[in-house]
Structure formats: C-alpha cells, structure tokens
Predict the 3D structure of the following.
Amino acid sequence: MTNPHDADKLHAMSLQLDALMRRVEERDDSLRELHSRVSELEADLRHADRELGLEYISGPNGGLVLEAPPSVSGRVLWWEAVNAAALEWLRDVAEPPGPNWERIDAYIRGSQGLGWSLAAVKPGHTKEYTQNGQFAWCGAFAAHCLGAAGLKASIRKSVMPSCYRLWEFVRRGKDSRCVPLEEVQPGDVLVVGRANGTGKTWGDHITLIRERYEAGSGEIQTYEGNSVGPGPHGGTREGVIKRSRPLVGKGRTYVAKYAVRFAVEDRG
C-alpha cells in the first residue's frame, strides 16, 4: 500500500518538474528571439553600408567588425568613422531616460569625442550629461565617430562642438576641406540648415555621411546624434539615428548646406 505522505511528495516533485520544464521552454523561446534579432541587426548593418564596399570580418569576441578593402580605404579617408557611427546606432542610444543615454556623455566628455570637462554650456546643469537639452551634442557624436578614425583631439575639441566653429575652421584658410555635395563620401561631415534661409548662415545641425551620393537621388544618407528619426528597433525616437537629408526643400525643412572632408594631416 502506498504511503500517502510519499504520494504527496511525488506529486509535489512532479509539479516542480513541470514548472522547470516550462521555464526551460520559455528560455529557449527567448534565446531564439534574441538570435533572430541579432541576425536582423547584422543584415541591417550590411545593407546600410553596402554602398561602401566594406567587408565584414569576425571580431575578437565573435562579433562583426568592418574592414575596408584597399580599393576603398585609399579613396574613403574616413570610412572608420562610418563604422563607429553604425555601431553607435546599433547600441540604441536615446535621450534620457531612454536606453544607453550614458553614451551621450562619452561623446561630449570622452577622450574619443570632444574631450570637454563639462557636458553643459549653461549654469545649473550637472557636470555629466543627464537630461535632454543640456547640450547640443550633434557635433559631439560626429567627433566621437571621427575620433575612432584618428581625427586629432585638438580639432575635435575646438572645431566639432558647433556649426559655427566648423564654419569658422573652413573659413580660416581651410577651404580645401569643403566638398561639393554631389561628390561627398562616407565619413564626410554634412551640415544642414533651414531651406527658407531662416536658420544660421553657418548651419543648424551637424551630421555624418554614411553613403556615397547617388546621382539624381536628391538626398544624402546620414548618421546623426541629437536628432529625431529611426533607431535600430524601428519607430521614431530622439538620439542616435540614421536618415536622409534632401539637397533642396521648402519652408523650415532641414536641407544640406555644405560638406567638409578633413584632410590626411588632420589625423594624429
């Protein structure tokens, strides 16, 4: 005759086993979903940079990194900046309190970015970047990406914080760095401004070009910080995004104003 106490123990063990099996199935479902999302992101990255002619190789931890073949790296001086921008976009960086917002502080105060000691230009803000609107960091994002490609720290710190500083840099005997909009390459800096001329003469927003200009398209493809557009998971958000900027437009639409390509001697 079965001991009732033993029967209760067996029943409890059976329930525990069923619960454990359900947890294993849920974990497997989560892993399958994660692997699927990783595959989608890798495909999106390949598609975004296909125009560059870049090749993907295995990184030190099994991840993907971009490698430019000699035929590309010799002509696209700052292709590494586009690689850095693509990786930052995939990090899913959004304004506080969104995901990975701490990266914004690294763009402003980090050694690869502007290298400023403060992430604020007005009194009353903290040393670190902690709230939306504390710092116009579009140039800081571009500086961080160009820093990965070797742009001198002195140029990043003094030239990249604003459109005005970049404009003055070009005007002070650096005209050779201006590039016709139809000849831009990945890694060039694109400044955009209001189509109706109500914006500033030197432009209103700094972006980084991610693809060669396609003749007749009327648009330049960009990676941008401190802007509104699609993130890696779709949908509209404010943070690090990718989008296109038209060459012409109407009203207050942001259009391409001028492009800058830093020279070989700007590396260091």
About this structure: The chain has a mean pLDDT of 82. The chain has two domains: 1-47, 77-266.
